[in-house]
Every structure is written in structure tokens, then in C-alpha cells.
């Protein structure tokens, strides 16, 4: 995910809420910078647990793998930060309750976002409460990492992997996160959160098992764990279909002519069914949650078609999507960018 981190921008924004947000973001980034240690130093430290040291020693290989597949070479992930919390940031997003209309926040130079990341959970909850008081659907989620879009050199964070580096899950988690954020450092289009996040998810999710197979082998615990528990295509496709169907049904309700009370009743029915199908609590699903599905999971079929038109070459694929600009899109925060990708296949 992307988070805006530039305290200098606060001077451009006076005493507004955006300035206060950037101030906390700057302080949080400063805290990470002060805690950062060179990865090589952590690996060489005899006090470092073997699992963590071994995992961190793979960072250069992950970066080289990404570069081989078209991602930009950067100075990111050369330092490590041990955090005493379960998330790097807490991400807050919101939407109108009877429309799929996300709340957006705009900043100079980097455009608008459909979410904000907070270093402190209490600050995130306070922001969420203020949005709920305005009658919005709100979603707060933990994020293991973020990209500063080149404002700073992004470190490896302990939140990027589970179990302190031990266990078969950690390798895939770390590789996926580094690849995801590296896509942001390579291709980023202002005011297009849906495209940016969906692209990063598509590339990282597709390349992670390739990396694991090459580094650990297809019979390794690392590869088998990823394929069974994370990259289970049948489960992912089933979830995608359920979320897409709910989104379509809800959009039809919102675009209808029924009074708001009737729309709200129908919305609750659709969400309750979705919750049952997903095995989730209905109270935890709302428009903001469904929009996040669109933000991170849109355009998969179109991305696959584009990759095929590039002869399966990831370098060509990254080069082609990198040719897009803000002018390639018909509106800001464009949810359906299928035509944009289809035009690249011609």
C-alpha cells in the first residue's frame, strides 16, 4: 500500500487536518529511521535469531529477482526495523453508506488516495470515529508495510512476516510484500488508487510462487505453504466471485429508485448473505470493505490478458503499464480501468 510521508508538505497546508495527518506521519517515519539498522549488520549479529538472519539474508535475492522481471532498482530494503506492534500502519478508508463513493484525501505532488495510513492505532480509531459520525461506512485494517514513493528509503519491517522469521510462511510473506511495494516504486499514477494497488497485487501475487520455487524448490515447505494457504486459486476465485456478485447486487440497489430505508434493508440482506458465504461476521462488512476488494483485486483478467499479449514477458508488461499516465484514465480514482488495459493489448 501507499502512504504519504513528507512533513515538508505540511507547510503548504497550513493548520488543516491534512497538515496534522502529515505531521503524525512524519513523526512515525522519523521513529522508524531512528530504529533502523543495516540488514547486513543484523544478519552478522550473533544475537539475531537464525530464522530472522536467514530470512533477511534473502533480501538482495528478492530485489534482484524483481529487477530481473522489470521492477526498478532502488536503495529500499537495505535496513531493518524491529517493531513492537503487529502492524506498520493502520489504514482507514470510508465510503458513502448507500453509494460506492469512497472518501478521498488529496496531497500536493502525489495526488489523491482512497485511504490514509496511521502509525498509531488510537489515531486511526479516532479518525475512523470522526468519519462514522458523518454517516460513512468505515473500515480500519492493519497493513504490514507501505511505500513512501521515493521520499525515503523504505526499510524491511518486522511486520512484513510472521513468527519472527521462523516457519514456512515467512519467506512468502516477505517476498510478496517486497515485490508489492517495489511495484509501487516502479509504476505509480497519481489519483488512481484502484489501478496502483491492483497492479501491485497482481504482479506480486503472480511472481511470489515463481520466486519461492526458484529459491527454495517446489517441494520446499516455503513453496508448499504458499501454494496451499495463500495462492489457492480455487479459493481465491470463489472469494472473488462472491465479492464481485455482492458488489454488483449492491450497486444495482444503490442505483435504483427505492427510498433510502428500502435500500438500507436490501443492503443488509445482501451483506448478511455475503458474510455467511465467506464465514465472516456481517457487522464487519460494509461498503468500505467491499471497495477495498475493488481497490486491490480489480482488473485481474485484464492484467492476465495484457501479460499474454506481451508474450509472457514481465519486463515488457512492466514497460507497457509504465507508459500509462494520468491522461490515460477518463476520471480520477477510476474503478473500472479495463478499457485502459485493453487498449494496451492492441
What does this structure look like?
- There is one protein chain.
- With 346 residues, the protein is mainly α.
- Helices cover 53% and strands 9% of the residues.
- Helix 6 (169-186) packs across helix 8 (221-230), helix 9 (233-254) crosses helix 11 and helix 12 (300-309) runs parallel beside helix 14.
- Residues 3-15 have low confidence and may be disordered.
Briefly characterize the structure:
The protein has 14 helices and eight strands. With 346 residues, the chain is mainly alpha-helical.
Question: SSE layout and pairings?
Answer:
Elements lengths: L16 H19 L1 E2 H6 L5 H7 L2 H10 L10 E3 L7 E8 L8 E3 L3 E3 L2 E3 L2 H13 L2 E8 L12 E2 L11 H18 L6 H24 L4 H10 L2 H22 L5 H19 L8 H11 L2 H10 L4 H8 L16 H8 L1
Parallel strand pairs: 2-8
Antiparallel strand pairs: 1-2, 3-6, 3-7, 4-5
Helix pairs in contact: 4-6, 6-7, 6-8, 7-8, 7-11, 9-10, 9-11, 12-14
Question: Features of this protein?
Answer:
single chain, 346 residues, mainly alpha, three-stranded mixed beta sheet, three-stranded antiparallel beta sheet, 14 helices, 8 strands, 9% strand, disordered N terminus
State the helix count. 14
* Rough outline: globular
- What Rg is obtained from the alpha carbons, in whole angstroms? 20 Å
Strand content: 5-15%
Number of structural units classed as domains: 1
Strand tally: 8
Q: Write down the overall mean pLDDT.
A: 90
Helix content: 40-55%
Q: How would you classify the helix and strand content by structural class?
A: mainly alpha
Order of helical and strand elements? HEHHHEEEEEHEEHHHHHHHHH
Strand order of the largest sheet: 1-2-8
Largest sheet geometry:
3 strands, mixed
Terminal Cα separation, in Å? 30 Å
Low-confidence stretches: 3-15
